[in-house]
Write a structure and sequence with these properties.
The structure is a single chain. With about 450 residues, the protein is an alpha+beta fold. The chain has 3 domains: about 5-75 and about 190-255 and about 360-410, FAD/NAD(P)-binding domain (3-Layer(bba) Sandwich); about 125-185 and about 255-355, D-Amino Acid Oxidase, Chain A, domain 2 (2-Layer Sandwich), CATH 3.30.9; about 425-460. Helix content is about 35%, strand content about 20%. The strands form 3 sheets. Strands 1, 2, 9, 10, 11, 12, 18 and 19 form an 8-stranded mixed sheet that branches. Strands 6-7-5-14-15-16-13-17 form an 8-stranded mixed sheet, with helices on both faces. β11 (about 225) and β12 (about 230-240) form a beta hairpin. α2 (about 40-50) packs parallel to α10. About 50% of the residues are buried.
């Protein structure tokens, strides 16, 4: 049996007995069958059961609830999405961009409200998310984040902070300014996902663990196929496996897994925290070669995840991907650049996992009434709040509830397929390396090139 506590500090300290729930024991039939007991699958189950308490809902999970990205992420639950407002406006119009941003704000509120209602103690603090500029060349990119939200009428929710205002939140060496997204929570994600699983069960849902889904079929009676039997559904099947959906032949080109890694310090001493500040526990990020996503944990540690993703050939995901010493070393150096106070602190934990990336960066949260198959995936690392939006959107779609959510672009999005292998592996890793070089060059020269590079042109296709 796997030691699930070893997969992240969050799982290690979530307070749960991680012994797997019983697996599926033969074929069964329910109203709704869901692949995946991460945030997406569990939020879908939760909101369906709240909407229609009489539904029979089964969640089928290959490992345990929260095993994947939901139990290993950086703990950012904030109103941001991989497709920014300006690009959303270009693709779908200003009204859709504004509705999407408001829906993401609603997701942050819903996560907080459900955690309180269901008694889920997930170390939640509402401090927002702050993105820092630590070099002149980063300022235009950071300022643009606030300007894009102002352009859709939400300038009060995402605001520019000058250096003194940024320092009032926390002291980051060399900070030239920051953008503060006010709608955001710092969370202990494994506590949240494990608590959500228990809430689903309290409301009548069933979770089968250690039951990998091998295939699925749509139609009048859609089916999840496992080695332990079939889960047949009267109303819908939902495929909510995020990066792991690439293991299914039918979805192999819909989404790719990208690696993500985190290092964690021991608890910092009081004098270090006095110098850093960070009382509100806002989640923190920044760009450039030392950029990453950062959290102050409830027990006084700093978690740092560098932006240094890799794509494994043919989307093969295994435990070896979680342990990348080169990335961990980069994370340790970047952590101490941001917070010199950690120079003498031990790094007590390091872990990794995979996130799901779609070809066009656009998440999918859709349901096909003809095939009765729902798809939700593609958050590109912004999934803690976006998965909640998926769950609420799918619940509306399946119950035929006309709402703002069912008219969002994600609810009607047709995923763009990735290129076949080996072109996919070569292209993705070429583009990612090229973007790193762009950052390194900008760090050295003080500016990005004015003309788009080949990597940027390939990525934008």
């Amino acid at each position: 049996m796997k030691d699930y506590r070893a997969y992240s500090y969050w799982l290690e300290t979530c307070g749960d007995d991680l012994t797997p729930r019983p697996p599926l024991a033969g074929s069964t039939e329910v109203d709704v069958a869901i692949l995946g007991a991460g945030f997406t699958g569990l939020w879908t189950a939760y909101h369906l059961l709240k909407r229609e308490p009489g539904l029979t809902v089964a969640v089928v999970e290959a490992e345990i609830a929260g095993f994947g990205a939901s139990g290993r992420n950086g703990g950012w639950c904030y109103a941001g999405m991989a497709v920014p407002p300006a690009e959303m406006t270009r693709r779908y119009g200003e009204e859709s961009a504004r509705a999407t941003a408001r829906a993401m704000i609603g997701s942050v509120d819903d996560v907080e409200a459900v955690a309180a209602e269901e008694g889920i103690a997930a170390d939640i603090t509402r401090g927002g998310a702050i993105e820092f500029a630590r070099a002149e060349y980063q300022l235009p990119k950071i300022r643009a984040m606030a300007e894009e939200f102002a352009a859709i009428g939400l300038g009060d929710r995402v605001v520019w902070l000058d250096p003194p205002e940024a320092a009032a939140h926390l002291n980051v060496p060399g900070a030239l300014g920051a953008v503060w997204t006010k709608d955001g929570l710092a969370v202990q994600p494994a506590k949240l996902v494990r608590g959500l699983a228990r809430a689903v069960e309290r409301h009548g849902g069933v979770i089968y663990e250690r039951t990998p889904v091998l295939d699925y079929t749509g139609g009048e009676r859609p089916v999840l196929v496992t080695e332990r039997g079939e889960v047949r559904a009267r109303r819908a099947i939902i495929l909510a496996g995020e990066a792991y959906l690439a293991r299914l032949d039918k979805l192999r080109r819909h989404v790719i897994p990208l690696t993500s890694n985190i290092v964690l310090t021991e608890p910092l001493p009081p004098d270090a925290w006095e110098e850093i500040g960070w009382e509100g526990r806002a989640t923190v990020g920044g760009f450039g070669p030392s950029g990453g996503y950062i959290q102050r944990t409830a027990d006084g540690r700093i978690a740092f995840g560098p932006y240094w993703a890799r794509y494994p050939f043919a989307s093969r995901v295994d435990d070896a991907l979680d342990h990348d010493e080169e990335v961990y070393e980069r994370a340790r150096r970047s952590l101490r650049t941001w917070f010199p106070q950690t120079e003498q602190c031990r790094i007590t934990h390091a872990w990794g996992g995979v996130l799901g990336a779609p070809r066009d960066q656009m998440p999918t949260m859709g349901f096909n009434r003809r095939t009765k198959v729902g798809l939700a995936f593609g958050y590109t690392g912004e999934g803690v709040a976006a998965a909640n939006l998926s769950g609420r959107t799918l619940a509306d779609l399946i119950t035929e509830t006309d709402s703002v959510l069912t008219r969002l672009p994600m609810a009607n999005h047709l995923p763009k397929e990735w290129e076949p292998e080996p072109l996919r592996w070569a292209g993705v890793n070429y583009v990612r390396k090229a973007y790193r070089k762009l950052d390194e060059e900008a760090e050295r020269t003080g500016s990005y090139p004015k003309r788009k590079t080949m990597a940027q042109l390939l990525f934008d296709r």
